[in-house]
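4.2 Preliminary Data

To establish feasibility before requesting continued support, the project team ran the inverse folding procedure on a target of 247 residues. The structure was first converted into the token representation described in Section 3, and no sequence information of any kind was made available to the design step. The complete token record follows.
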């Protein structure tokens, strides 16, 4: 009986330890009119883009999943039945899941992909630079009316053409950047050409001023959200990224 009691206590201790190592990731998936998007696949991925965890949003757009503590490469929200037809997808990058976290994906016809953030080495270290690739569904459909995504990108890569899914230009009025929920002042916007997958594509590098009031709920990270509404195509997209603060 004593051995059985000891074994039971060991099992309970292990279960309690395992529960403590799990983090709750939750949120709500909506469009930019705050309408819920149901049956959207929300996936956590590693740096090889392998899916580690996945769940679906419910009829009200809510999702929730318990995951192991750790740093995750990215989160994607996508509905395959809509993708490339009426909508694209949403991404968050460099996700620090060391305590319960709320991420609310929003997406429609503009995709904000490949966010990278760095801090310019210029005192007083009051700005960030953020790079991203905006992709318009309207422009993509016009470029490949009779071809699927894969074939078009393969053709562009072979011919060394630039895949032009991006807005021709972006003005400060079209872009909103928030850091830890506070709006930031956009300082510079530069259009660039990026090489990848054997071809070329357009991206934007934006410098913005850090809000003076610190509001981060994550001790070591800043959460940066970028929302773009392109006047050229009347499309909106959003992307987010976590960046580790300087020590």
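Position-by-position output of the design step:
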């Amino acid at each position: 009986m004593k051995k059985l009691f000891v074994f039971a206590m060991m099992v309970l201790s292990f279960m309690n330890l395992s529960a403590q190592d799990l983090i709750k990731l939750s949120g709500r998936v909506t469009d930019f009119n705050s309408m819920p998007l149901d049956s959207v696949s929300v996936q956590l991925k590693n740096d090889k883009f392998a899916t580690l965890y996945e769940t679906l949003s419910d009829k009200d757009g809510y999702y929730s999943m318990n995951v192991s503590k750790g740093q995750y490469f990215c989160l994607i929200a996508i509905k395959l039945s809509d993708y490339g037809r009426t909508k694209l997808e949403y991404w968050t990058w460099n996700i620090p899941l060391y305590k319960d976290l709320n991420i609310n994906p929003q997406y429609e016809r503009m995709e904000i992909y490949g966010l990278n953030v760095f801090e310019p080495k210029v005192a007083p270290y009051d700005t960030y630079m953020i790079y991203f690739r905006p992709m318009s569904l309207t422009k993509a459909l016009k470029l490949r009316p009779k071809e699927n995504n894969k074939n078009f990108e393969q053709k562009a890569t072979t011919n060394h053409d630039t895949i032009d899914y991006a807005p021709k230009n972006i003005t400060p009025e079209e872009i909103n950047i928030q850091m830890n929920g506070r709006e930031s002042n956009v300082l510079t916007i530069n259009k660039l050409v990026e090489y990848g997958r054997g071809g070329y594509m357009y991206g934007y590098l934006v410098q913005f001023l850090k809000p003076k009031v610190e509001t981060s709920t994550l001790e070591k990270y800043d959460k940066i959200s970028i929302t773009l509404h392109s006047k050229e195509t009347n499309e909106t997209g959003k992307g987010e990224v976590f960046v580790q603060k300087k020590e």
